[in-house]
């Protein structure tokens, strides 16, 4: 129910826009498909994914000859769920991590302001609640505020944090964090990294170095490279996904601020376009306002 509440804006807007688009219509024709295309694009589903969805619906119209607008919702829902299934296994309901990887290492990337620190704090809280031992690493050493904000969350959740001075080597912080986690027998390590996009080569070099140094402590780490995107920024989120996937191998997504936006469609578009699963969604500023992404719940909240 909190998901419904969190996504209220997305759902109202999508549903009412779609309703307006088909008013007075009984069957799906080119005009309805055009309106649908507009609704999807304005919900930030993204052009490529929108076209994919429209093509699939067109194919069904051609096959079945007649498609009533009442059925359109149902079919759209199926098609969107199908798209999300291609990248999201989707049955996850809790914050579980693989038991055979200890410590399980999550490297978090994303530009400033998207909700990276908040997401790390919320995640640490959830893992701790499950009885897991969490260690945070403040490897965003570019801004003093980033280190301080992470400290605030570490205190709030009551988990240890490894930090150095501002301007110190991020790879060195990551190394210390993993070493500390190993000696404490921790279950999960979450490493914050700097999100500077203005210099792509620097970003790439920095993330590569952080990874390489981490692997000196625990082989095959990070296990997860989690890209945090602000779901209310639409095309910017797409652009950031493009840049980060070029700079490093992103393995999962967290999409934040879906509570404050009419543009939840970005989740569908980005997951499809970059073929990366959405693991978490942020639906508020509070410590509990993070949810494990469940594709059917999401699609239902989009349509119901
Ligand atoms: P960072 O610079 O990427 O680390 O961003 P922060 O974690 O400091 O978050 C930036 C702002 O976004 C803060 O005011 C957060 O409270 C807010 N924020 C983060 N996640 C969410 C969310 O899911 N919903 C809402 N409404 N605000 C969020």
UniProtKB/TrEMBL annotation:
Q: Which InterPro entries match?
A: AAA+_ATPase (IPR003593), P-loop_NTPase (IPR027417), Signal_recog_particl_SRP54_hlx (IPR013822), SR_rcpt_FtsY (IPR004390), SRP/SRP_N (IPR036225), SRP54_GTPase_dom (IPR000897), SRP54_N_sf (IPR042101)
Binding-site positions, GTP = 110-117, 192-196, 256-259
Q: What is this protein called?
A: Signal recognition particle receptor FtsY
Subunit organization: Part of the signal recognition particle protein translocation system, which is composed of SRP and FtsY.
Q: Which family does it belong to?
A: Belongs to the GTP-binding SRP family. FtsY subfamily.
The UniProt record lists the EC number as 3.6.5.4
The protein's matches in SMART domains, at most eight in alphabetical order, are given as: AAA, SRP54, SRP54_N
Q: Give the record's keywords alphabetically.
A: Cell membrane, Cytoplasm, GTP-binding, Hydrolase, Membrane, Nucleotide-binding, Receptor
- GO CC annotations, alphabetized: cytoplasm; plasma membrane
């Amino acid at each position: 129910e909190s998901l419904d509440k969190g996504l209220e804006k997305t759902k109202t807007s999508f549903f009412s826009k779609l309703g307006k688009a088909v008013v007075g219509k009984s069957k799906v024709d080119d005009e309805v498909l055009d309106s649908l295309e507009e609704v999807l694009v304005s919900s930030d589903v993204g052009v490529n994914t929108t076209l994919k969805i429209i093509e699939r619906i067109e194919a069904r119209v051609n096959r079945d000859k007649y498609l009533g607008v009442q059925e359109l919702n149902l079919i759209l829902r199926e098609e969107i769920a199908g798209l999300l299934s291609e990248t999201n296994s989707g049955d996850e309901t809790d914050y579980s991590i693989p038991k055979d990887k200890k410590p399980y290492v999550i490297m978090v990337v994303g530009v400033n302001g998207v909700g990276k620190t908040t997401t790390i704090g919320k995640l640490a809280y959830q893992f701790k609640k499950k009885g897991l031992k969490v260690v945070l690493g403040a490897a965003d050493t570019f801004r003093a505020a980033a280190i301080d904000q992470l400290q605030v969350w570490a205190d709030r959740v009551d988990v240890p944090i490894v930090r150095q001075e501002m301007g110190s080597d991020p790879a060195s912080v990551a190394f210390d964090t993993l070493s500390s986690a190993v000696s404490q027998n921790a279950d999960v390590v979450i490493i914050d990294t700097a999100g500077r996009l203005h210099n792509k080569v620097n970003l790439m070099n920095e993330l590569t170095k952080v990874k390489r140094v981490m692997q000196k402590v625990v082989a095959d780490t990070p296990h997860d490279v989690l890209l945090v995107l602000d779901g209310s920024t639409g095309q910017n989120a797409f652009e950031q996904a493009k840049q980060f996937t070029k700079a490093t191998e992103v393995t999962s997504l967290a999409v934040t601020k879906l509570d404050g936006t009419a543009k939840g469609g970005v989740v569908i578009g980005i997951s499809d376009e970059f073929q990366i699963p959405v693991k978490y969604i942020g639906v508020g500023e509070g410590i509990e306002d993070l949810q494990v992404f469940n594709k059917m719940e999401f699609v239902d909240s989009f349509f119901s």
